[in-house]
Amino acid sequence: MSRPPLARERVLDAYESILIADGERAATLDAVAKAAGVSKGGLLYHFASKDDLAAGLAERLAVLTDQDLERMREAPDGPVAYYIRTSVMEDDALDRALIATTRLAQGGSAAASAALREVRHRWADAIRPHVRDDTALDLVMLLSDGLYFNNSLSEPADGRVSADDGFVPTGAALARLVELVRSSTA
């Protein structure tokens, strides 16, 4: 697969950043072009409308999910531990794509909601063979949701979750949580 043009990626990065920081209403074509450092014509060359931008973001999310699922399959400690451990936000490309797509879904985008449901189904399908039943799968998925949500409760100065804030376990506490879930769901 060939690499997308740099300008296209800059436009998607800008769109993602505006969605995360200011929401869907702020993500006008003009604002995205300005933030990306391209002309409006340059933006329109890659994305003819806001719907095309949203579709590009959904495509990015799908690609990042493919990569995440591959890492999950290859994780030495298994998919369940990987999924829980990576539910602690690290401000990586997948986190940003998820948050930006969530902002679109919160604004009423059916396509964004569908993209998020698809990601969730794909993660569940990857984890299902590694847990004893659907209740155990629910435990893993909902715990992950809670960890991901609790990241937003922290207000560290540098934008990263602090181990001292108590909202999200890290280090040894996260390892104990992972082990508890693994032993309870296998």
Q: What does this protein look like?
A:
This protein has 186 residues and is mainly α. The chain is built from 9 helices and no strands. It has helices at 6-22, 29-36, 40-46, 50-74, 78-85, 93-106, 110-127, 134-151, 171-185. The longest helix is centred in the middle third of the chain and has 25 residues, at 50-74. It is elongated. The model has no long low-confidence stretch (mean pLDDT 90).
Summarize, please.
With 186 residues, the protein is mainly α.
SSE inventory with pairings:
Layout: H1 6-22, H2 29-36, H3 40-46, H4 50-74, H5 78-85, H6 93-106, H7 110-127, H8 134-151, H9 171-185
Descriptive terms for the model:
186 residues, mainly alpha, 0% strand
Rounded mean pLDDT score:
90
Q: Which shape, going by the Cα principal axes?
A: elongated
Using the CA coordinates, give the radius of gyration. Answer: 18 Å
Counted beta strands: 0
Percent of sequence in beta strands: under 5%
Helix- and strand-based class?
mainly alpha
Amino- and carboxy-terminal Cα gap: 37 Å
Helix content: 55-70%
Largest sheet: none
String of helices and strands: HHHHHHHHH
Provide a count of the helices.
9
Low-pLDDT ranges: none
